[in-house]
Specification:
This protein has 259 residues and is an alpha/beta fold. The protein has a single domain, classed as Alpha/Beta hydrolase fold, catalytic domain (Rossmann fold, 3-Layer(aba) Sandwich). It has 9 helices and 8 strands. It has an 8-stranded mixed beta sheet, with helices on both faces. α3 links the parallel β5 and β6. The radius of gyration is 17 Å and the shape is globular. This is Pimeloyl-ACP methyl ester carboxylesterase. It comes from Chryseobacterium geocarposphaerae.
Length: 259
């Protein structure tokens, strides 16, 4: 799938958009805090093909092939802001029937988008998302920062993000390790999520407990189900791709057959 830099409300974002299935929803993929469109590998196209849905994958500002972020300083509501940018992308491409698939930060942005723009979102798949900050999350970010400082992680990230790596890592770690972010919480938004929700989480997720799952699915207004995978960590779609793919296909087909 070919992508290009698109101007979205003044932001230069790398976007891949495949619109080959008429009158079908578009699955929009939202990457994690160090991720990119490329790092999803072939998972999005496999899900698109299996469900006969259109597909949009993009790099958030400061990631992958998108233009750099203007500063590493982030506000507490930075993911809420990203949900508004996603809405701008949907408006730019005139997409009004959407299934969201987000991982980690991307999953949180998906939840926020579903709550703020319910008229566009048909269903949401939330993989390893966060609705509040836990001690295990802070420890996970600290461990990632240490790996960045002591291993070849910078070189591995550079392959996908080029010279944007230092600012990207600083932006992510600084906000999540700050004292002011400990109070961040989006539970108040969950009641506004009306679409069907699937929450996927590895039981051994090093960034969050199953509390994230239970508190999310118990507070949304639409139907909600969970898929907890034993012995799997923070990236189920990479650690057990077939399992996640099959469950996602089942969920999406079910949504389309009942609407």
């Amino acid at each position: 799938m070919q992508g290009k830099i698109s101007d979205v409300n003044g932001k230069k974002l790398y976007i891949e958009y495949q619109n080959s299935f008429e009158n079908k929803p578009t699955i929009v993929f939202l990457h994690d805090s160090l991720g990119s469109a490329q790092l999803w590998r072939d998972f999005p196209s496999k899900l698109s093909e299996a469900t006969q849905c259109n597909l949009l994958v993009y790099d958030r500002l400061g990631y992958g092939k998108s233009f750099p972020m203007p500063t590493h300083e982030r506000e507490n509501n930075y993911m809420e802001t990203e949900a508004d940018i996603l809405n701008d992308i949907l408006n730019t491409f005139n997409i009004n029937d959407v299934i969201l698939f987000g991982h980690s930060d991307g999953a949180t942005i998906a939840l926020i988008t579903a709550s703020k723009y319910p008229e566009k979102i048909r269903a949401t798949i939330c993989e390893a998302g966060h609705i509040f900050v836990e001690d295990v999350t802070v420890k996970g970010v600290k461990d990632a920062l240490e790996a960045y400082q002591t291993t070849n992680l910078p070189e591995r990230l550079q392959k996908y993000h080029r010279d944007k790596v230092p600012m990207m890592v600083k932006a992510w770690t600084k906000i999540w390790l700050s004292e002011r972010f400990r109070s961040w919480n989006i539970e108040y938004l969950l009641k506004d999520i009306q679409c069907p929700l699937l929450f996927i989480q590895g039981e051994a997720d090093e960034y969050g407990t199953l509390n994230q799952v239970e508190k999310t699915i118990s507070q949304v207004s639409g139907s909600a189900e969970k898929f907890i995978i034993p012995n799997i960590g923070h990236t189920p779609h990479k650690e057990c791709p077939e399992l996640v793919l099959n469950r996602a296909v089942e969920f999406i087909n079910n949504v389309m057959n009942h609407q």
